[in-house]
Amino acid sequence: MAVGHAYEVAGGTNVIAIHFDMVKSMKESGTIYFDDTPVCEDGKFAWE
After folding, report:
1. 23: closest CA among 2, 48, 42?
2. Residue 4 CB: number of other CB atoms within 10 A?
3. Tens digits of per-residue pLDDT, 7-28?
4. Which of 6, 31, 26 is closest to 16 using CA atoms?
């Protein structure tokens, strides 16, 4: 996840002078969903 200045063209309103990323390893556990469908589980994407 990235936190920082938002793109106005995308409707974002966040205005900040700094930017930082938050990173979490998902190789051992974790799931990413897109429209209620898991697309990445335990570090492997569904198409791999």
Report:
1. 2
2. 13
3. 889 888 888 887 777 788 888 8
4. 6
